[in-house]
Design a protein that fits this description.
Blueprint: E1 2-3, H1 7-19, E2 28-31, E3 37-38, H2 43-47, E4 57-58, H3 60-63, E5 68-71, E6 73-78, E7 83-87, E8 93-97, E9 101-103, E10 107-109, H4 117-120, E11 121-122, H5 127-146, H6 150-156, E12 158-162, H7 166-186, E13 196-201, H8 212-224, E14 227-231, E15 235-238, E16 242-245, E17 250-252, E18 255-258, E19 262-264, H9 267-271, E20 275-276, E21 279-281, E22 294-296, E23 301-302, H10 317-335, E24 351-353, E25 359-361, E26 368-369, H11 370-384, H12 388-404, H13 421-425, H14 433-440, E27 447-448
Parallel strand pairs: 1-2, 1-9, 2-5, 8-27, 9-22, 11-18, 12-13, 12-18, 13-14, 21-23
Antiparallel strand pairs: 3-4, 6-7, 7-8, 10-19, 15-16, 16-17, 20-21, 24-25, 25-26
């Protein structure tokens, strides 16, 4: 049983499909099957309207053919019994047994104990969050254009992103470009100079993975977009109309995008596995040492980095894809009584799309910026996307947007709908230890193998 339909889970299933002999084993994948495999690195482009939502979701039914796809969420697991509790989209729960469990459930947004953050913060971890954020941002422009109160207008035209990692920096850059272009072209009552963006981070550096020089270039590009970088600070309180920083500064705003870190699925707590900053600790072969026949890979796992002794692999899509395949290799070796192989992969670099021709890339340690970096960035994303249909949608929409631009159309989904990070990422779905024991002992939740 594979838990999660992201990079790691899909690659594990694909490898097993190709190598397992008929009747040798069956493969089940539990996840948001209808939503497809989400290509997370392009979520900021969905939020900015460059790409439609369908372009970044790859159909699992196009990719996997021998795997039994089971829509739902694993909300509890017991390694001693070899059982998982699956909640269907309808809300019904049932118990599934397994012989080997592959945890590839990815990560969720890490919510700190900050007053107001769960209620008023916006995440950027799921497709629904990206679509909702675009709708919300454009709604603020609509409302600011008809506001008579200058205080309200200021709040609606001020946007804050907390966290200057990959997701936060890209999101701030592309949405700043979107809001400024919209204010200039379609809102004659708005002064574009009133649109303010802030990027908040505890560190002085932006995206440290890029290196010091490219990180400095990123800060320059952000400044040219009118984005104010505030370092050495984080949030202490979020309200519907403001953000208070640890420095005491209060920023009037109705939009706080929270990208200050992720944590792994709560399933780690159910299994009783040892964790490192919330990620399940594995050995170099991707097995969870303390649990029988349990494997972990991708963002949920702290996998030793054999290229950098003493460190664990970064939670990136690049590592997740390769770890998923490595988990499939070692699973097959285990089934056939053959030796397993340690996971080893040197990170090939990082690419960052800041919108338009502004991009930064560090392939194989070579620093690039501008048009060359954008070509590398977009080429990498196309190669990393699994199907021809998805690649075609992405490429065609890039071309269409570069020629036709954006119509800045809202879908209306932000009008009165729930928007919290917990709503979108369903962090409240997971069972407590007591609830798990109750469900596993309930004969109405039949055991399926």
């Amino acid at each position: 049983m594979i838990v999660g339909g992201g990079f790691a889970g899909v690659e594990c299933a694909r490898y097993l499909e190709r190598r397992l002999r008929p009747g040798e084993a069956s493969i089940r994948l539990v996840g948001s099957v209808g939503a497809g495999q989400l290509y997370v690195p392009l979520l900021p482009q969905v939020a900015s309207g460059v790409l439609p939502s369908q372009a970044v979701a790859v159909s699992l039914r196009r990719v996997l053919h021998r795997t039994e796809l089971m829509p739902g969420t694993v909300v509890g697991a017991d390694a001693a019994r070899g059982q998982c509790v699956v909640r269907r989209p309808s809300g019904a729960e049932y118990v599934l047994g397994y012989d080997h469990l592959v945890l590839a459930s990815g990560s969720i947004t890490r919510i700190l104990d900050i007053p107001g953050l769960p209620e008023h913060g916006f995440g950027m971890k799921t497709l629904a969050e990206a679509v909702y954020l675009r709708d919300h941002v454009l709604r603020q422009l609509d409302m600011a254009a008809i506001a008579d109160d200058p205080v309200e207008q200021r709040e609606r035209l001020t946007f804050v992103t907390v966290g200057s990692g990959y997701a936060g920096t890209e999101t701030a850059a592309v949405l700043a470009k979107l809001t400024q272009a919209a204010a200039r072209q379609y809102f004659p009552r708005l002064d574009p100079s009133l649109v303010r963006w802030y990027l908040i981070n505890r560190s002085e550096r932006v995206m440290p993975e890029l290196g010091e020089r490219l990180g400095a270039d990123a800060k320059k590009l952000m400044a040219q977009r009118g984005i104010e970088f505030i370092s050495g600070a984080s949030a202490t309180e979020v309200t519907a109309r403001s953000l208070t920083l640890t420095t005491g500064q209060v920023i009037p705003t109705r939009t706080v995008v929270w990208t200050a870190g992720v944590t792994s699925s709560p399933l780690a707590d159910h299994l009783g596995a040892e964790t490192d900053h919330g990620r399940i600790i594995t050995d170099t072969e991707l097995r969870v040492p303390s649990l029988h026949n349990v494997w972990a890979c991708g963002d949920v796992a702290a996998v030793p980095d054999t290229t950098q002794p003493g460190k664990t692999c970064a939670p990136t899509a690049q590592h997740a894809s390769r770890q998923g395949r490595a988990a499939g290799v070692n699973l097959l070796a285990t089934l056939r009584g053959k030796p397993r192989k340690p996971y080893r992969h040197r990170d090939l670099g990082m690419v960052v799309d800041l919108g338009g021709w502004d991009a930064l890339a560090r392939p194989m340690g070579i620093g690039l910026r501008g048009a060359p970096a954008q070509l590398v960035t977009r080429g990498y994303h196309l190669l990393a996307t699994r199907t021809f249909a998805a690649r075609s949608r992405i490429a065609l929409n890039w071309a269409l947007h570069s020629v036709a631009g954006d119509d800045f159309v809202r879908l209306g989904i932000s009008d009165g709908a729930p928007h919290t990070i917990g709503d979108f990422e369903r962090t409240g779905d997971y069972l407590s230890a007591e609830q798990l024991a109750q469900v596993l002992g309930d004969p109405r939740c039949g055991l399926a193998r």
